[in-house]
Structures are given as C-alpha cells and as structure tokens.
Amino acid sequence: MIRFGTPILFVLIWSTGFVVARVAAPHADLQLFLALRFSLTAAVMGLAALVAGAKWPRGRDLWPHVLAGVLMQGVYLSASYWAIARGLAVGVMALLGALQPLFTALFLVATRRTKLALRAWSGLLIGFGGVGLVLAPTLASRGVGSLNGLTVSAALLSIVAVTAGTLIQKWLAKSDLRSAASVQNLGGAAISALVMLGVGTGRWDGTPVLWSALVWAVLVLSVIGTTLLMWMMRHGEATKVTALLLLVPPLAAIQAFVFFRETLAPPQLVGFALALGGVVLTRSAQEPPATQV
Predict the structure, then answer these.
(1) Which sign, positive or negative, has the C-alpha torsion 66, 69, 71, 74?
(2) Integer Cα distance of 71 and 78 in angstroms
(3) Whole-prediction pTM
(4) CB–CB of 253/139 below 8 Å?
(5) Burial bucket for residue 258 (CB in 10 Å: 0-12, 13-18, 19+)
(6) CA pair distance 102, 43, nearest whole angstrom
(7) Domain coordinates of the chain in residue numbers?
(8) Lowest mean pLDDT among 120-129, 143-152, 161-170, 206-215
(9) Do 191 and 42 touch, CB atoms closer than 8 A?
C-alpha cells in the first residue's frame, strides 16, 4: 500500500512547486526564499532527528550527504530560478526539467552498463512527448523568453545537478532520513545563500501570502515531498522513480487552470494522457541487471 500510494502523493506534492514559485516571486527575492526554505527545513528535520534519537552522519559519511544537498537542493533550484529571473520562460524550464528521467537513464547506461528495456525507453520518450504537448500552448502564446547561453546553461546545469543529487541517494540508503534531510538541506541553504549574496536583491515584503508560500514550501514541498523522493530513490529503481517527474508539468498545468484560470487546450489534455501512459509504461518495464565488467 505504501509503495503504491507514495508515488501518487509525491507527484501531487512536487507539482505544487510551480505554484509556490509563482506565488512567491512578486513578493520576494527567490534566492532569499530558497535560503529560508532550506534553512527552516533543516531545522525541522534536525529537531525530528534529535527527538527520535536518530544517528547523524559523521566523518566520511557526512560529505556525500552535503554533496547530495548541494546538488539536489541548492544548485538545482538556485540555477533554475536564476534562469527564470533572467527571462527564461517557465515553460522552457519545465520542458528541460522533464529531461531528468532521460538523463537518469543515460547516466545509468553509461556508468553502470545497465541495459534498459525497450519498454522503459519507449515510456520515457512517450512521456517526454506528452510533456511537450502540455507545454506547447503556453510556449506558443508567451514565447520562450530569453534563450541565451547563460540562461540555457543555468537551466541545463540545474537538471544535471538534480539528476546527480537524486542518484547519490541510492548510496545513502542506510542513513536515517530525518538527519540526512537536515544535513542535505543545510547544504542547499549554503548554496542559495551564496547565490543570494552574489546576485540576489534581498527583497521580502512580508505579506501573509508570502509567509503562507514559505510554510507550504517548508512543510509540504521539502519535509514531505523531498523526503518521499529520498525514500523512493533508496528503495526503488532510479529510472522508474524519476519517470514520475514527467507528470509534474501536466499536473502543474491543471493547478494553473484551477488557481490562475489558465485555459487547458485539447492538446494539453492529450499530452497529459501521453505523459501518464509513458510513466505507466516505464514503471512496468522489467530492467535487466547491470552488465558485469
């Protein structure tokens, strides 16, 4: 039951990240928002670990957690938010973000000599095509924004970083999730703070809607959502877990329809069906074992 319900809960939570960023952007410097989000999450998870008497990573075991947090939290969101703030369309960022499952599969094939089943590759490509259909009307009406070397490089860096960060979770399966999340969020907070000091404005208007967005980002997106992702990466096949991210842009489009009255065109509904079908196809594939060398 847990293994069935966890992926559904994860994608529902993870897709709200687009809404949170959109709500917070008019009221705060997003780099400051991220630094506060990660710092507060580290405090919440650290307190939970202390109350439970959980073991903390130390010595050589500490640095993989720091690296995972730097990549999966700090570099990923700081770089993607920076690119959006510099004019890259959110739709382009979402489309590039949907490449993460493909990046994960290519990484596993290249480094572990894993042979993915044809069904898995087909599911990933179908799902990515579905994401493209979902985002096509938005990109057609609003354009792609500032497509230059810096913004595209930052966007791709963010996807490579989150791919690497999530894969590192496979090596940290024996550590306690609460203490691990605390350490990893501290790593993310450090990166966001550095980026804020370098290019941020420090803007924070303190409105109730901004504080509400921060509370949601900490308690739901980070404490629950990121913990679920860490748990799934530790207990599941990486390609099947990251395939779930193909559902994030379609669900975000539905949320934009509900909260911001953005229209849903027929191609977007078809795209949602394709993305869902691609995820189901990928997760149903039997992955052959890694080739021994």
Answers:
(1) negative
(2) 10
(3) 0.86
(4) no
(5) exposed
(6) 33
(7) 2-284
(8) 143-152
(9) no
Residues 6+ apart with CB under 8 A from 237: 287
CB 175 within 8 A of CB 57: yes
Count of CB atoms situated within 10 Å of the CB of 118: 9
Q: Read off the pLDDT of residues 54-86 as tens digits, 9 standing for 90 and up.
A: 999 988 889 999 999 999 999 999 999 888 888
How far apart are alpha carbons 249 and 234 in whole angstroms? 24
Spatial distance between the Cα atoms of 119 and 53, rounded to a whole number of angstroms? 44
* Residue tagged 């069904």 (tokens): 119
Tokens of 184: 């990893």
What the block records as the tokens of 146 is: 């500032």
Of 226, 246, 221, 270, the C-alpha closest to 33 is 221
pLDDT in tens, 213-243: 999 999 999 999 999 998 888 888 888 888 8
pLDDT value at position 291?
46
